[in-house]
Amino acid sequence: MPQDTFIITLPPGQLPALRGWQATPAHLAYRLGPGPHLFRADGAVPPRGGVMVVDDQDFDPLGPTGPLCQEIIRECQVRGFSGAVLDFENRLPPLEQIAASLDEAFARRGWTLFVPERYGSKALHARVTIPSALSGGSLQKRLEEALEHFGESRTALALEKRREDFFLPSPTGSGQPLSEEELEGLMQRLSPSVFFSGELCARYFTYMSRESGAHFVLFDDGDTLRHKVEVARGLGIHTFLAPWAEVGPYAARIGIQRRPEQSRARR
Length: 267
Known about the structure:
Layout (H helix, E strand, L loop, with lengths): L4 E6 L13 E10 L3 E4 L10 E5 L10 H14 L3 E5 L5 H17 L2 E5 L10 E5 L7 H12 L4 E4 L4 E5 L8 E2 L2 H11 L4 E3 L4 E8 L3 E7 L2 H13 L4 E5 H4 L3 H4 L5 H6 L2
Parallel strand pairs: 1-2, 1-14, 2-4, 4-5, 5-6, 6-7, 7-8, 8-14
Antiparallel strand pairs: 2-3, 9-10, 9-13, 11-12, 12-13
Helix pairs in contact: 1-2
């Protein structure tokens, strides 16, 4: 039976929390900045091992991308990283060039590159991350479509613990994000009947507001995350990305194994 691979994103300061688990750390310590150049988070202890996460929030599209790609490759070599997660929210030609260049360079070195779905056609060797959160449709069908397009060896599920409040009707399919505290407060105030959607693999409830009308609240917990992992496994997907801040309390429930020495210590 294929073994699951969990890539867990977390800042370097939280790394000790992951040491008892069989998971690969993905270090939230890097960003693309002016130049363009690679920048490491201020004050962060340089991480070692695992993979690096690179975001594009401060990306400057002016300037050549080749030197930037070399900076990323050198950082991976120096820090002993086995790959990188490109957490790109924008889609710009220079970012596409970066993804394509790193894809070739990483493949030659046997490293793993993870890219968002919209970059999957630019990085042909990379793992393509498919978000687990949906506001409509079916997670299974969504993953089946991804598998048909990218293949089993390239498809990874990006787990998200979602909490959103939607106005009904919701023409955009986007709701208002809720914090954990806001969701708990809403449920305490309303005491709603909560249901489980097998298609979305998420919990939901509805309520009426005098000011804004009908609402639909969609959210995840440990059980819904486990269901999403099980749907992916059933389709042959065994690579998962997840933020430790969201899945840490449910690590064992979603299938992350403890390291043998930790298992013995707990007996």
